[in-house]
Amino acid sequence: LSCKEKPNRQTLGPPWNEFDMMYMNGCAVKDYGNVTFEEVANDEPIGNVKRPRAVGSANQRLSAAVHAVKNDGYTCVMLGGDHSLAIGSIQGHAAAKKDLSVVWVDAHADINTPLTSPTGNIHGQPMSYLIHELHSKIPVLPNFSWIKPCVSAKDIVYIGLRDVDPEEHHILTLLGIKGYSMTEVDRLGISKVMEETCDYIFSKVKKPIHLSYDIDALDPSISPATGTPVVGGLTYREGVYITEHICQTGMLSAVDMVEVNPKRGKTEDEISSTVNAAVDLIRGCFGRLREGNHPADYKMP
Ligand SMILES: N[C@@H](CCCCC(O)O)C(=O)O
Ligand SMILES: [Mn+2]
Ligand SMILES: [Mn+2]
Ligand SMILES: [Mn+2]
After folding, report:
1. Which residue's alpha carbon is at the smallest distance from atom 4 of ligand 1?
2. Using an 8 Å Cβ cutoff, are 250 and 261 in contact?
3. For helices 86-96 and 52-71, what crossing angle results, to 10°?
4. Nearest 5°: CA angle at 133, between 193 and 148?
5. Are 256 and 102 in contact (CB under 8 A)?
6. In this predicted model, what pLDDT tens digit does every residue of 129-181 receive, in sequence order?
7. How many angstroms separate the CA atoms of 52 and 16, rounded?
8. Angle at the Cα of 66 (from 61 to 68), degrees rounded to 5?
9. How far apart are CA 166 and CA 93, in angstroms?
């Protein structure tokens, strides 16, 4: 899925069907379709890394798809799936746009290496495969050899952290990666967090922004239908403010919306609350303003 400047109407399949593309505020939307992933038989763990072959080949396909979207000049919207897909999304984006800044909005840091991961779930590891400074800490994994580190630690900002493993905290500290946990969000307020985030990522060169948004960054009262909910999250308003602020920089180049999982919703309301929040976050990325919008060529009758 990707967006450009002309008005267009398009709706998508479940669970995104209410994602009416007219909401994309005058953006032309092109649906690049679903990236199909292969089932991999006997995908035995390597060490404690689960399903490496399936996740590696899925991300290789996704990387090619995102690369194509960027080569066509669009801002790419990747609707996940879980956060392991950020491997392919950021890799494909970096193949088209050499130098990226990454804003990672998440309750978690997702920066475990295969050797530090407490669970072996790759959705907790994507950043470790992407960062130059961690390359020497990544063992060889089947279907992962195509991945080339493409992001520098200094070009990353985390927002919303509140469930970081000790090993991840060591990595973040060692590499000096900038992060605004929920403590900083409470202390500074979200507008100051966003002001500092943009000053920081634009301090040297203005690089295209890859926004990787895990829906579990929001408080579970808003987005319960997700795999690893953590109390004390961003309010709906704080979550949307992040997207509005990034939109107005004019530097948004790709956005992931991941970990929306209808199977984890106990009721229809929980599912729709989660999906609607995700839709509103993406709308905020593309210019939807809570004050209202009107088409540039609107003429009063
Ligand atoms: N840190 C945990 C939890 C990861 C949560 C993943 C989500 O943020 O995509 C792990 O490594 O398993
Ligand atoms: Mn997950
Ligand atoms: Mn995540
Ligand atoms: Mn998360």
Report:
1. 124
2. no
3. 30
4. 105
5. no
6. 999 999 999 999 999 999 999 999 999 999 999 999 999 999 999 999 999 99
7. 27
8. 95
9. 30
Ligand 1 atom nearest to 117, measured from its CA: 11
Q: What is the token pair recorded at 171?
A: 């990595």
Bridge partners, 28 (sequence order): 4
What is the widest separation between alpha-carbon atoms in the chain? 67
Q: pLDDT tens, 182-207?
A: 999 999 999 999 999 999 999 989 99
Nearest to 117 by CA among 169, 161, 165, 55: 165
| Residue 255 neighbours by CB under 8 Å, 6+ apart | 75, 76, 77, 78, 210, 211, 212, 213, 282, 285
What average pLDDT does the structure give for the chain?
93
- Per-residue DSSP letter, 155: G
Per this entry, what is the length of the chain? Answer: 301
C-alpha to C-alpha distance for 171 and 153, rounded to whole angstroms: 10
Using an 8 Å Cβ cutoff, are 1 and 31 in contact?
A: yes
Ligand 3 centre from 8 Cα, in Å?
Answer: 31
Among protein residues, the one whose CA lies closest to atom 8 of ligand 1: 108
Element (H, E) at 178: strand 178-181
Choose the residue to mutate in 85, 110, 214 for probing ligand 1, maximizing ligand atoms within 8 Å of C-beta.
110
